[in-house]
Amino acid sequence: MISVNQLVGVSLVYVAFLFAIAFFAERASVRGRGAWLRSPLVYTLSLSIYCTAWTFYGAVGYAARSGMEFVTIYLGPSLVMIGWWWVLRKLVRIGRAQRATSVADLISARYGKSNLLAIVVTLMAVVGVTPYIALQLQSVTLSLSIFSGPEVSESLTISTAFWVAFGLALFTVLFGTRNLNANERHDGVVIAIAVEAVVKLIALLAVGIFVVWGIAGGIAPMMERIDASPIGEWSMDRSRWVALTALSAAAFLALPRMFQVLVVENEDERHLQIASWAFPVYLMLMSLFVVPIAVIGLDIMPAGSNPDLFVLTVPLAEGQGGLATLSFLGGFSSATSMVIVATLALSTMVSNHVVMPVWLSTQAEGAQVSGDVRNVVILARRASILVIIGFGYIYYRLSGGGSALAAIGLISFAGVAQFLPAMLGGIFWRGATRWGALAGLTVGFAVWIFCSLLPSFGPDAVLSAEVFDNGIAGLGWLRPQALFGIEGIDPTVHAVVWSLTLNIGAFLGVSLLTFPTPLERLQGAQFVNVFDHSTQARGWDAALATSEDLMIMAQRILGPNDALSLFREEAQRQGLTGHLPEPTQGFLQTLERELAGSVGSATAHAMISQLVGGTSVSVEDLMAVADESAQILEYSNRLEAKSAELSRTARQLREANAKLTALSVQKDAFLGQISHELRTPMTSIRSFSEILRDTDGLDQAEKTKYASIIHGETIRLTRLLDDLLDLSVLENGQVSLNLDSGSLRDLLEQAVLSAGGDRSTHLTVKYARADTGVVLTTDLDRLRQVFINLITNAQKYCDASKPELSIDVIDMGARVQVVFHDNGTPIAAEARALIFEKFARINDKDGSGAGLGLAICREIMTRLGGDITHEPRPDGNAFVVHLPAQAALAAQ
Amino acid sequence: MSDASGKTSLFLERRSYRRRRMMDALRLLPVVGVLLWILPVFWPSANDAAGAPPPVAMSGAVTYVFVVWAGLILSGMGLWLALADPNGRIHKDPVSERDP
Amino acid sequence: MGKHVLLVEDEINIIEAIQFLLSREGWQVDTHSDGATAVDTVRRMRPNLVVLDYMLPGKNGIDILTELRADPDFQNLPVLMLTARGQSRDRELAERAGVSRFMTKPFSNTEVMTAVRDLVQLAQ
User: What domains can you pick out in chain C, each with its CATH number?
Assistant: First the structure.
């Protein structure tokens, strides 16, 4: 027998493993290597949160009590998946197109982005799902108590439930609220869920295989034992068979946690196609051994033992401690994965639809000037997670883990199924209105509370026995299990049928009687016609918003980087330079959808309308939507798009033209400069050579003088051409670097020597701190060229009476700077900006330089990965050579 | 269904004809599932009044439900394989993209 | 007419060459190399001919010429402009500013001297 401590140890190791997996998945996804996290397999496995502890343990218990009826819970979802083409395809497409973050968000977005609806759905979801979370906590403590034996104390179970709730809250906060945008998806959570899906499947299969081949001795003997068992005959409440299949199908679509994994976490619509058959496989495998386990459990376990725990107790009774542990982990996985995703989905709803609108309305200045909204959203989401799990825990404590919990699975299903009419009506019927949805939801929910939730606590718990028997206030047609006096229906079927019927009736009736707002009509058209997106709902009066305001707001919600890239992309798409696009209607819609991914569509809509002032839905829009005159709209849309395109093209042309003109001016100036630099020495050469040729009677001194002028000018010309070629090669990036290592000190000394040292000129060169022994790995020849240039510049231009150049090496570890500091007149501030430009000559007295030296120096340093700057000093000029970082690093 | 293309050519190319019929099958599959799984409602049950035919054996019922299940899964998988192009996407058929 | 020429040029070797050529023909050559003060120098020296470089430190040849032509005293002063920029637009600008003769560097010595002689003849 395994001790409780061992089991707790195993669970803790397992939990640590899940944390690690989630952590590494998040890291891989952040580094962009998360493609495998988004495979169809992971998507399919993540859907398995449908199978909670209620199905893991409860299915066997269910089968032991009612035979095959348990399988209806799996048949409904299987049919929905196999029929993906009808509903799920559209739901996923709409969810992605509208960036819906939850069921509440989807419904609110469909019905004119109504926050009232969102709040109603959110509250219903919390009420419907909280008991379900309590059920999961109960299942973990109950299964643990199996191992601890009868001596288990009350405090142990309670503390177990507390620590499980605490751990789940921690996990969900850590991995569920890492990034704000619900559409950015939670890789860590999803991968952990997928792993848990595998664990629970393997656990159940292992127990089943053990039961069939280990105990019964094969398939044929098993079948015999099934037929011989108390559930060996087909006994079926026919209405329940149909109603429960339909109910589970409805719940599969409407459960907040299922919406989260099916739609929100969906990465690729193709995954849905694969999951359409792969997930039914999972469901089939999960239910394959349920009947055998139930039959063997009934057979070998003492009478009166809890059939809900056969999955654990049968292996234990057979002395299979390891198998029982695996089974425990399977149940644990089912419970935890459900709580994590359900909490995540609910917290998104609560923060987006309850906390954010309240918070926004308390901000007097409105969305655009309030602080960073992202922190508020994340905080709200984390707080919601804690509150929801806290609710679950409190519910568990209050209900005392009583038998009322056992029925809560189906009750919860019936509760969330109330969303379905508004959801499906919204995506298939354009006539559905906000008031219709609201009426359907409230009526359905009220009936559900009266007929399903309250009676589940038993007579005299919440509803008195008097009400059960005679109805509210003695009205016989208001009995919770016999509405309108129709008796004899199974209570569950009764609740499901009446709540959904009245829900649908109210939804249809009110929708037919009320008139939708313009925004509702537009959204309705977008939802219903999601597959032929010829018409775009036109929402915003674009002229009223300024891009700056929008930018500020977007930064607060999406974060500065995402907002900036969103705006810049749009600006590029519009053909503008800079990062602020024109606030066109199309852009406002994109922006609203982006924001909706973070804070929900109703809040996003409200925030934009604060900036823009209100929606503008023109008469034409309404006519197009109401009268189906889509062709007219499309035609005018096309014209509008064309004219927008034309004006965009014109703007692009203007910009291109301005750019070309600027380039041409630059090119003219450059050519003029080059021409001047070349022609000037050529003028002297030509003139003096003609003088030498044509003039008689020149004396020898004159001849020598003129010849040396010619000689000097040819040298100047050659140097100019060399420099130009050098610069052109450097600028075009054609230069190949010859990497070499050498000491900085040697390099400096060589440079001083090449520049003529202090012999040929009167410049005194001093070294300060040049003995650092820094060794460089870079193109030494090029670097030497830079040094020589700086030294000869100092020789030429330093106008002090006793010119001095001090060379200083500043070694800052990773970075090394070489400072060439002369004591000449500091370069005037206005000239400083130009000195590194081509042909810029400052204080050039003899005109011997072409003004390219420093330009070449800067190009070389850029190529080498460093830089060169000029710093004015009170007593002269300092040119600072910043050596490339890696060259200096190699020196360490 | 095929009126959209009927104006230009009466008969579709054989391949795209097959593809459309397979899309039809895909759409029909859940209906088949519902019909087959609703059948147990008509089986004789143990809680029927006396004199009714003997109830179906549980082993048979289990086998039936799971065989239907496997059949639906295999059909779904087969249609997916047949309709998916090498990239795994269901072929974009202008008609199939439209709502029913 | 007297033979007093003012050479406004900043390239030392070109000054040397033109000075050599003109003085051989009997001209008295004064030189000036700063654009900013060139107009004042012309006013002070009142030469018979100005040889003006286009690109000068301080103020370019076109501006100097425009300023000179605005003064009634110098409306008929012969001005020979030399440029090393070699762009056709420059000739246009110079002509609009009222240049007497426009030449592109490098020039041949005979060309320059012919131009000088022509200008002197025209002025007489």
Answer: 4-123 (3.40.50.2300)
Instruction: State how far residue B62 is from chain A, nearest Cα, in angstroms.
Output: 7
Percent of chain C with pLDDT over 90: 17
By C-alpha distance, the chain C residue nearest A678 is C84
Residue B50 scores a pLDDT above 70: no
Predicted-complex ipTM score = 0.91
- Chain mean pLDDT for chain A: 79
- What percent of chain A is helix, strand and coil (3-state, nearest 5)? 70, 5, 25
Q: Is the pLDDT of residue C80 over 80?
A: yes
CATH number for the domain formed by residue range(s) A644-731: 1.10.287.130
- Euclidean distance between the first and the last CA atom of chain B, given in angstroms as a whole number: 9
Residues of A in contact with B80 (CB under 8 A): 273-274, 276-277
Angle subtended at Cα A498 by Cα B44 and Cα A237, rounded to the nearest 5 degrees: 15
Q: Which CATH class is domain A4-428?
A: mainly alpha
Does position A831 have pLDDT exceeding 90, yes or no? no
Q: Is A245 on the interface with B (CB under 8 A)?
A: yes
What are the two backbone dihedrals, phi and then psi, of residue C101, each rounded to the nearest 5 degrees?
-150, 140
- Write out pLDDT tens, residues A160-193: 778 878 888 887 787 777 655 544 567 788 888 8
Q: What's the predicted TM-score (pTM) here?
A: 0.60
* The pLDDT of residue A843: 55
Cβ pair B40:A68 closer than 8 A: yes
What residues does CATH 1.20.1730.10 cover in chain A? 4-428
- CB-closest option in B26, B58, B88 to A226: B58
DSSP code for A120: H
For CATH 3.30.565.10, the residue range(s) in chain A are 739-889
CATH class of residue range A739-889: alpha beta
Residues in contact with A745: Cβ distance below 8 Å, sequence separation at least 6, in sequence order: A770, A771, A772, A773, A774
